[in-house]
Amino acid sequence: MVGFKATDVPPTATVKFLGAGTAACIADLITFPLDTAKVRLQIQGEKQGAVRAAASVQYRGVLGTILTMARTEGPRSLYNGLVAGLQRQMSFASVRIGLYDSVKQFYTKGSEHAGIGSRLLAGSTTGALAVAVAQPTDVVKVRFQAQARAGGGQRYQSTVDAYKTIAREEGFRGLWKGTSPNIARNAIVNCAELVTYDLIKDALLKANLMTDDLPCHFTSAFGAGFCTTIIASPVDVVKTRYMNSALGQYSSAGQCALTMLQKEGPRAFYKGFMPSFLRLGSWNVVMFVTYEQLKRALMAACTSREAPF
Predict the structure, then answer these.
(1) pTM of the full predicted structure?
(2) Band of the pLDDT at 292, cuts 50, 70, 90?
(3) Where are the domains of the chain?
(4) Alpha helices in the chain (DSSP H)
C-alpha cells in the first residue's frame, strides 16, 4: 500500500468538502502557469477584449507562451489571477467534487451500485451548483490571466479592485458574465472528469489490476484528464472568449461561438488544446491523488482523536 492506508470508516461529507477544496488549491498552485498559457492562447486572434493582451505579442505553443510571458511581462505574470483562482477552487471544487458522492447517493437512493446515468446526473448537478456559487471568482481569474503587463496598461491592480471595477463598469451582471457557457462547460467537465475517474478506478479495482492506492489514483486521474480535455475544449474556449470580451462585443455565448467559427474556422475551438491537456492532465493527477490522501489522513486524524487509547 502506497500512501495513507484506507480507514474502516468512510469519509464524511464534511471531510470530502474540505478535502476537495484544499486538494484543488494545491493543484492550482502547481499548474497555474499552464492555465494562464491556455487562456492567452485561447484569446489570441481576438481583435479586442475587456482586457487586451499586447497586440504585438504572438504566442506559439505552451512553452513558447510561458517563455514569452516571462520575458515580456516578468515571471509573476504567469500567476496573474492566482488569488481569484484559489478563491474559486475553495468554493468551486468543494461543491463540484466534494459533494459528488453525496449527490450520487441521493440519485441512487443510497444504493452502493451506481449506474452511469446516476453518475452523469450527479456530475452535472454538482458542476452546475459550483458555477452558481463561484462564477464571479472565475470571471476575475480569467480577466487577470488575459491582461498583459507589457506597456503598463494594467486594468486591474488587485483582486479586490477587479471585483469593484467590473461591478462598477459592467454592473452586477458583469461578475456573472458567461454563466451559461460556464454551466455547460462545467457540467461537461464534471461528468467527463469525475465520472471517467470513477469508472476507470472501479474497472481497475474490479479487474484486480491495481489496489486502491497511489498508482491506481494516478492512472485514473490521468485518463480522466485526457478525456475531459477532448470533450470540454470547445466549450472552454467559448467560455474564455466570452468572459474576457468587452461590454457589447458579443450578444451571447452562442454569438461568440458563431463569430469564432466564421472568422477563425473550426480549429479555433481547440486553440490552446495542448496547454489545456497538460494543465487538466497534471491538475487531475495532483488533485485526485492529493484528495484521496487528504480524505484518508483527515479520517485517520478524526478516528485517532476519538479513540486516543
Answers:
(1) 0.76
(2) very high
(3) 8-79+272-308, 81-148+155-177, 188-271
(4) 13-43, 61-73, 82-96, 100-107, 116-146, 159-170, 179-190, 196-206, 214-244, 253-264, 273-306
